[in-house]
Amino acid sequence: MSEAAAERSFVSPVRAPEWVAVALLVLMGSMALIGPFLVPYDAIATDPPIALQQPSSAHLFGTDQLGRDVFSRVIVSARVDLGIAFTAVITTLLIGSALGAAAGWAGGWTDRIVSRLLDTIMAFPLFVLAVGIAAALGNSVSSVVIATVIVNLPLYARQVRTEINRRRGAAYVEAAQLAGIGPFTIVALHMMPNLAPQLAVQASLNLGWAILNAAGLSFLGLGIRPPHPEWGIMVSEGAAYIISGEWWLFVFPGVMLLLAVLTFSLTGDALRDRLDPRRA
Amino acid sequence: MRLIATRLLAAVPTMIGVIIVTFILTRLLPGDAAAYFAGPAATADSIEATRHHLGLDRPLPEQFVLYVEGLTRGDLGKSLTSGQSVLDDLSHRLPASIELTFLALLVALGLGIPLGTGAALKPGGRIDHVCSLVSTVGQATPTFFLGLLLVFVFYYLLEWVPAPIGRLDVVYSPPHEITGAWSIDAALAGDWKLLGAVLRQLILPVTTLALFGLGPLARVTRASMIEVLASDYVRTARAAGLPRRKVLRAYAFRNAVVPVLNASGMVFSYMLGASVLVEKVFGWPGIGAYAIDAVLASDFAPVQGFVLAMALLYLLLNLIIDIVNGLLDPRVHFDV
Q1: B323-332 long-range contacts, Cβ below 8 Å, gap at least 24?
Q2: What is the pTM of this model?
Q3: Tell me: the pLDDT tens digits for B51-81?
Q4: Chain B, 230-249: which have a CB under 8 Å from a chain A CB?
Q5: Residues on chain A touching B18 (C-beta within 8 angstroms)
Q6: Is A78 part of a structural domain of the chain?
């Protein structure tokens, strides 16, 4: 069995159609971009007299323990969670590619040091390391982003390192060198564009993971602090009301998280089909 | 033996890296550690004295040597909330975490391998559909949300399980600790009623964690089985007229299991991470919940101890997997 075929069999053939990914992407995008302007209620203003009301036509997803509208809070959260995930993934992509490209191009000691660094990160269970970093950096959005970036670095750096190293002796690279083009330009403008499709797939799949990571941290009470609406915090606060049956507090933000992650994994799969025909 | 020795040797640089990272995490702590340890009533002088006592006034490389020295003595610092040494706290709580995570890994393997094999035997068939659905949804569901959902359905709605808090319902007293894994201890004591109670508490957290690991294991099994089934030696075995069962068990499965074993190391790492969330959801008194409580109380020594312990656990499991791999597949060699 050829390598390509083996890889193909790793990906399940049973797929949701592409339009599902597109629809979800539009939903998530509009929630994050224009959602906060459209929501019916203030996401932070409390209204104790109407606390813990069941979902109704006035409050689609019910109200929480302080009388805040769960629907509005769920929508407003999208910007926070997706914002963190996008910032983290783009930062990782840039730093990881730079590290990987340096290691793959230079080889020798640069390569050894970078590889050792990446191995060390990989030696930790990643979420545990993220908890440690976020705890050390204190409660802020940026500490969640930094934690996510660090634990995620090896994913991109290793891939870029391998690919750059593999293409180092390619004819077009040698031609560029002979033409007197500097190594930085060759890597950035001649080689990296070749990696763009696979990195795009990787980044898309990775966005889902970054959302889970950020929500997990805030669920534990690290990172973003209440009363700021965020899916992980909402699930965490809603957990206290499960035993009294107020399910809408934790179910809606939880389902939104699930949908957000699903959005990016389906988009990643669809992108792979389109961009990387060898593997699709 | 040589295999084990080479593997141990190869783990040394990783170990050093892990210790350096945990050291850096300790030094990154927000605020002035000396002022913190000196207590709220400290004067500038006593803070200075504490700083000197903790060695925080020395250059960083020297502090690192002190830190490593402490580690070799098993000194991970002291927890401010429990007043105990972190090592004692961790070793007291570790069995609860290990029981949870290993049981979940076993369940995930026990379900994932048959599921993946079933999917591989008939790609595109019904089992294959189930397999891909389970892995897609399983990967997209936040662990903590899944845990809470199970609590809502099986505790609140159906009332099938006891209150999902801690390792044992309050009406029972815990078994005499031998291994620290209460399910094993209860079985060893021959107390079946107690074992039942312990298992009833375990079922939801273990299911949560297992569902999380099931997807990747099933996917890898499927891919690996498909590849092996298409191989020349399986074709030869079939052509020789060996019974289907024998071909599957003796030829296909044994070769297909190596990638699955390797993947289970990765899955275990995910599970160790996710166990922190699961422990939090189910009030499970393991080291993850301990570390999180410590973080929230701004008590940082336990967090460092926890991160280090988790990395060690992961390293140890990878070591075991490599050794088992070497036993299963004589072709596996290590170049250091």
Answers
A1: B323/B3, B323/B4, B323/B7, B324/B261, B325/B258, B325/B261, B325/B262, B326/B3, B328/B254, B328/B257, B328/B258, B328/B261, B329/B258, B332/B258
A2: 0.85
A3: 777 666 777 777 788 888 888 887 887 777 7
A4: 230-231
A5: 120, 123-124
A6: yes
Nearest chain A Cα distance for residue B191, angstroms: 30
Measured in residues, chain B has a length of: 336
Contact status, residue B259 vs residue B217, Cβ threshold 8 Å = no
Secondary element (H or E) of residue B139: helix B126-140
Q: Which two tokens stand for residue A93?
A: 């992509």
Q: How far is B188 from chain A (nearest CA, A)?
A: 32
How many other C-beta atoms can be found within 10 angstroms of the C-beta atom of residue A188? 14
Q: Do A120 and B14 touch (CB under 8 A)?
A: yes
Rounded to a whole number of angstroms, the distance from the CA of B164 to the nearest CA of chain A is 10
Which of A 75-94 lie inside 8 A of B, CB atoms? none
Q: What does the mean pLDDT of chain B come to?
A: 82
Note whether B132 contacts A6, CB cutoff 8 Å.
Answer: no
Report if residue A108 sits inside a domain. yes
CATH number of the domain to which B189 belongs: 1.10.3720.10
Distance from CA of B1 to the nearest CA of A (A): 24
Q: Do B292 and A131 touch (CB under 8 A)?
A: yes
Query: Which residues of chain A neighbour B154 with C-beta distances below 8 Å?
Result: none
Q: Are B220 and B260 in contact (CB under 8 A)?
A: yes
Q: With an 8 Å Cβ cutoff, is B311 touching chain A?
A: yes
Residues 29-58 of A with CB under 8 A from B: none
A186 neighbors A177 (Cβ within 8 angstroms): yes
Give the three-class secondary structure for B85.
strand
Flag whether B256 is in a domain.
Answer: yes
CATH of the domain at A82: 1.10.3720.10
Does a structural domain hold residue A20? yes
Q: What is the ipTM of this complex?
A: 0.85
Which residue segment(s) compose the domain that B152 sits in?
94-287+311-328
Does some domain include residue A1?
Answer: no
Is residue B217 a part of any domain in this protein? yes
Shortest Cα distance, chain B CAs vs residue A43, angstroms = 22
Number of domains into which chain B is organized: 1
Contacts of residue B137, Cβ cutoff 8 Å, sequence gap at least 6: A258, A262
How many domains is chain A partitioned into structurally?
1
In a domain, B162, yes or no: yes
Using CB atoms and an 8 Å cut-off, which of residues 260-289 of chain B contact chain A?
Answer: 269-270, 272-274, 276-277, 280-281
* Each residue's pLDDT expressed in tens, for chain B with a length of 336 residues: 676 777 778 788 888 888 888 888 877 665 556 666 666 666 777 777 777 776 667 777 777 888 888 888 878 877 777 778 888 888 888 989 999 999 999 999 999 998 988 888 888 788 888 888 888 888 888 999 999 999 888 888 887 878 777 777 777 777 877 777 888 888 878 778 888 888 888 889 999 999 888 888 988 888 888 888 888 888 888 888 888 777 777 778 777 888 888 888 888 888 988 999 999 999 888 898 888 888 877 777 888 888 888 888 888 888 888 888 777 766 655 443
CB atoms within 10 A of CB A45: 12
Please report the residues numbered 5 through 44 in chain B whose beta carbons come closer than 8 angstroms to any beta carbon of chain A. 13-14, 17-18, 20-22, 25-26, 28-30
Residue B116 falls inside a structural domain = yes
Domain that holds residue A238: 16-279
